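[job 0412] stage=fold_complex status=start
inputs:
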Amino acid sequence: MLVAKVKGARRLAAVNSMAQASGLFPGMALADARACHPHLAVAEMDEAADRHWLKRLAQHCACWSPRVMLAPPDGLTLETTGAEHLFGGEAGLAAQVEDRLGEMGMTLRLAIASTPEGAQALARHGHFPVADERQALRALPVAALGLDAEATQALNRAGLKTIANLASRSAASIAARFGIGAVTALRRLLNEEQAPVDPLVHPEPLHFERRFAEPVALQASVAAYFLDLLREAGRALEERGLGGRRFTLTLFRSDGARHRLAIETGLPTRDPAPIMRLFDERIAALADPLDPGFGYDRITLFVPLTEPLAASQPALGGKEPEEEALSTLIDRLSTRLGPGAVRRLVPRDSHIPEQTQLALPAIEIREPVRWTAPPAGEPPMRPLFLFDPPQPVEVVAEVPDGPPYRFRWKRKLHEVRLYEGPERIAAEWWRRKGGEEPGKGGLTRDYYRIEDVRGRRYWIFRHGLYEEKPDPLWYVHGLFA
Amino acid sequence: MPPHDEMRADAPCGAFGPAPLDIAPLDIASLDHVLGGGLALGRVHEIYAAEPEDAAAAAGFALTLASRLAQDRQHALLWLRPLRAMRLGGLPHGEGWAELGGAPGMALLGVVHDAMALLRATVDALRCPALGGVIAESWGPMRELDLTASRRLTLAAEKSGVPLLLLRLDAAPVPSAAQTRWEVASAPSQALPGHAPGAPTFDITLLRQKSGPCGMSWRLEWDRDQCIFREAPLSGSLVSVPADGPAQRSGAGRGAGRKTGRSAA
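[job 0412] stage=fold_complex status=done
writing structure:
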C-alpha cells in the first residue's frame, strides 16, 4: 500500500487487491485506514520512479506498435492500426500484451477502442472485450471522462450518471454548467473530435555504413571512406543538434574477421578531424596492428552515446577556447593510454584516510572540483603521498602507549627528531555487523606525524590500542613533502 | 607542425641569445638574482631527488613550485606518473596536496606504463596552452630521455609557454637541454611548539643552469598560506646532530657545504 501527502494529510494513494477487499480505498486518510487495520504495511509513493517505470514499459511496448503514447500516471496507449494482424487480430494482440506484461509482474486492465480516449475509458471504467463499442462507451459512468474530481462530482449531483445521460444534453448547456473541458472530453470520447497525439519518439540509431563491391585493402582508401562516414555522421548529428561522445568503428574483413575500435570524448563533438585523430591514436595504441588481409568489404560507424551540442561560433581571431584545448588533450591521452589513465581527484566524505578521495576518470568529470582549503597557519596534517596498503614498520617506543622513538623502514633505521600525535582515528564501527559491541568495531589507529633527524617527514600509525590488541603493529601510511 | 613554425620557435634561443622569457620570480633575492629574475616559464626544469628517500621531498618541491608558477594563472596542472611510481612512492593524497597549497581538484593525474609513453604524453601535454604546468615523474634511469628527446620537450615547452618540471627520482643526472637542474633533499623543519614538525622545508641545490651561474644551495621553507618560499634559518635545525656523527657525511652535513660552488653536472 502506498501513501502520499495530500494537502498536509497523509492519504492512501494506491492500494493492492487485498487491501481493497478489506474496505480500503485510495484517497482514504492513513489515520482512518490504520484505525481499521492497525498492521498496515505502508510505503511512500515515489512518483518519479513510477514515471520512469511507465516510460520503460512504453519503450518495451514498441514491439507491438511503433506509436506508443503515455497516459500518466499509470496508463499507456498503443496505436495498433495496421499492426493487429501480425499478432493474430485484436484478441491475439490483447492476449500477447497481457501475457508478456503479466510475466513482468504487472496487473493489467486493457481495452481496445477506436479512439485513445475511448480505450482508456473502457480500460479504467468498463470491461473488455465489448460487443458494441459505442453502446459500451455510452454506458460508462461520467468519471470515464477523466475530468477532475470536483467536476465529476458536480455531474453526478446534477443526476448525469452516465455518458449517455450527458450526451443527450446540448453541448451549450453542458459547457455553461460544467465548463468547456467537459464538452471537449465528451466529444473526444465519442469520436466526434480528434485529440492530438504525442507518441514517444524512438530516434533512429546513428548507424552509418559503407559496403564495397570489391574488398578495399589500401589504408588510404579505408581512411578516405571512413572520413566520408564521419562527415555523414556529423551531418546527421548536426540535424538533431547533438554531438557524439562515443564512436565505434567496425571493419569487416572479406574473410569474415572483424575489428572493432571505439573512442570516447570528454566533450560532445561532430567535427570529423578530431575524431579521426583519436582513431589514429587508438590504432597506434593497438597491441597487434590492424591487418587488412585481402581487404575490407564493409565498414560501419556507430554513435552510441550523444549529448546536445549547439552550433557555436569560434572566437574572433580563431583561437581555440582553452576548455576545448584541455578536453582535446584529455581525450587524446585517454584514448592512447586507456580510458582511466587520466584522472581527477574528487573528495569523499570519510575520515578513514585512504577513503577520503576518489580518482575518477577525467573524461567523465569535466568540471574542476573544489577541495576545502586547509586552516591558515597550520603545517600539513595529511601526507602528500599515501601508501595503499600501508607499509609495515618496526618501531621502538619509549613507553608502550607513546610515540615512536626510532623506527626501521625498508631496512633503514630512522631516529625520530620531532613528532606530533597521536591523532586517533577510530574504525567505522557502524558499517560492521555487530560493530557497536565492544571489541568488534575494528581497530583504532593512532597516527603520528614524525620527522627524523634527516628532515624526512612520515605519517606513522599504530594499528590498535593496547586494550584492543596485545601487540599492535606499526605502519608507515604516508610521506610528507 | 609546419616547418616555419618550428624555425620560429627554435630561432630565438639559438645564436641570438635567450628568447624573451616569461619569468616567475620566486621572491628570494639571492635565488632570483642567480636565476636572472626568476624561474622561466615555457622551459624545462629538472628536479632530482638527492637520495631515493627524498622522493617525497622532491615531488613536494615540484608541486609547490608548480603552484607558485601557476599562481596567477587559474590553469590546470597535469601530473604524469609511471605505473610503478604508485607502488614505490605511494598515491597522491588530495588532502595533503591541498595542504601544500595546491588545487588537487583542478589538477589532472595521468598514469603511463613506460618511459616512452611518458615522454610522448609529456610532449602532447606541453603543446596544450590551457595547462598551467606539467610535472613528469620518472623513477630510475631513463635511457629514452636523451638529448634529442630533451630538446624536443624544450621546443614544445617554448612554443606553448607551459613550464615542464621533470621529476627524476632515484636517478643520476644526465646531460640534457633543460634550463635548470635542481637537486632536492628534505631538510629538518622549524619545530613548532611541543616538538611538532613544522612547515615543509627543502634543501635545494642548483646543479646546472643554461648560460648562468650554478652550484649554489639554499634551504627553503614553503609558506602555504602566502604561497611563497622563505629562506629557512640555518641555526636550530642542525643542533641536534653531532658535528662528527654518522649522519654528518650523507645528509645533515649538506648544510655545511652551503653557498660553496659545486661543479655542474
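[job 0412] summary: Confidence is low (pLDDT under 50) at residues 1-19, 235-265 of chain B.
[job 0412] exit 0
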